[in-house]
Every structure is written in structure tokens, then in C-alpha cells.
Automatic annotation (TrEMBL):
Protein name: At1g24240/F3I6_17
Matches recorded under PROSITE patterns: PROKAR_LIPOPROTEIN
Keywords assigned by UniProt, alphabetized: Ribonucleoprotein, Ribosomal protein
InterPro entries for this protein: Ribosomal_bL19 (IPR001857), Ribosomal_bL19_sf (IPR038657), Translation_prot_SH3-like_sf (IPR008991)
GO BP term, example: translation
Length: 222
């Protein structure tokens, strides 16, 4: 392209010089002959032929150079938006992580404590014999008193209530001391209970015999 532009500029200059010289020769030197004008170098016809030949050759050269130049692929330098766009599926957008379920600590601890409590009860029963105690039974206990230098005292009475709570199970007995009713509550699996002996078994309809508190003479025969 630069070669064509330079050739066109050269041609324009050549035509301009010819156009300037032709009027001068025609006005002042009209009597000159063709041979003299050729000698001076003002022959217009050969110059125009040479110019046309030069233009045609330059055009051919320009077209050939354009044909040789490879076609550049400008699409490779640009971002294409015609491709398939990645569309998020509704399933992937709405994926929610699965919730991990945790049990409440109090429930878990309660379950563990039940197991531990059951194992402790079995261990105590293997160490010493503990008879079945129910309300209405008359029992005799040998109790070790830590406050009295661990001396053993004998307690006898009727069972009026029992509370089942695993290792913390308790029972309540009622007895007469100097004509006054006295109630005592003992842990069933306490190590201070050396001996538990069932003296008599009486059948009762109630689980709690609290009505014996109103009957002072109910335990005289015992």
C-alpha cells in the first residue's frame, strides 16, 4: 500500500510538471518544431504513455502484494458470545446441605446414667445379699452408725413406703420408741446397712401405708 501511494504521488508531480511546461511551449515557442521539442524533453505523448504504463505496473504489483498477504483471522482475538453458555441447573442451585441431627445432651446423659446405674446395682447385689422389700413387710436392720464410731445398732419396724430409683432406691420404716411413732428412711443399697432381714410379710392393698401414722396402736404387737 505504501508503494502505491508513493507511485501516485510521483505520477501527480510528473503530470503537474508537464501541464506547466505545455502552455509555456505553446505560447512562446509556437514556431518550434516537433523535433526541437523532443530535443528539449517536452514531448507530452511519450510522457503520458510512460505514466500510464507506470500506473498499470504499480496496480498489478499492488494487487499481487495484496493477494500474497494472508488473511488475518480477527475472530480469534475477540471474545465469542455465540457459544453455549453454561446454565446452572435448578437442582445444583437449590442444593441444601443435609442437616446433621444431634440429640440433646440431657437425653444422651440420661441414657448413659441409666446404664451406669444399672451396672452399679448389679455390682452391689453381687457383693451382699439384699432381699426383696415391699410395703407391709416387717424388717430388722443392722445399721452401722458413722457418727457413733461405726457401732452397729439394730432397728426394727414395718415398711410403709418404698421408692424405686435404681442405685438411689430408698425405703421408709415406722416403729415405736417409748410409745412414740418414729419414721426412718434408709437407702436400700447403702454400705452402712450390714444386714437386712425380713421378719414377717403382710399383704396390703396400698403401696403407701401412711394411714398408720394415725393409728398409734397399730404396731404394738410388733
Amino acid at each position: 500500500m505504501q508503494l502505491i501511494r508513493g507511485s501516485t504521488r510521483l505520477l501527480q508531480r510528473h503530470r503537474f510538471s508537464i501541464s506547466n511546461t505545455l502552455p509555456f511551449t505553446s505560447s512562446s515557442c509556437g514556431s518550434w518544431s516537433a523535433n526541437e521539442s523532443r530535443k528539449l524533453g517536452f514531448d507530452s505523448f511519450p510522457s503520458t504513455r510512460a505514466a500510464t504504463y507506470l500506473i498499470s505496473s504499480l496496480k498489478n504489483a499492488g494487487f499481487s502484494s495484496l493477494a500474497v498477504v494472508p488473511k488475518q483471522n480477527f475472530s480469534s482475538r475477540c471474545f465469542s458470545t455465540t457459544g453455549d453458555s453454561v446454565q446452572g441447573s435448578p437442582e445444583s442451585d437449590c442444593v441444601v446441605p443435609q442437616r446433621i441431627k444431634f440429640k440433646r445432651l440431657d437425653k444422651t446423659a440420661k441414657h448413659i446414667m441409666q446404664i451406669v446405674d444399672k451396672e452399679a446395682v448389679e455390682e452391689v447385689r453381687t457383693l451382699r445379699e439384699i432381699p426383696e422389700i415391699k410395703p407391709g413387710y416387717i424388717v430388722q436392720l443392722k445399721v452401722e452408725v458413722p457418727e457413733n464410731k461405726r457401732r452397729v445398732s439394730i432397728v426394727k419396724g414395718v415398711v410403709i413406703a418404698r421408692r424405686n430409683a435404681g442405685l438411689n432406691s430408698t425405703f421408709r420404716i415406722r416403729r415405736l420408741v417409748a410409745g412414740v411413732g418414729v419414721e426412718s428412711m434408709f437407702p436400700l443399697y447403702s454400705p452402712n446397712l450390714r444386714v437386712i432381714k425380713v421378719v414377717d410379710k403382710k399383704k396390703v392393698r396400698r403401696a403407701k401405708l401412711y394411714y398408720l401414722r394415725e393409728k398409734v396402736n397399730a404396731l404394738k404387737k410388733h
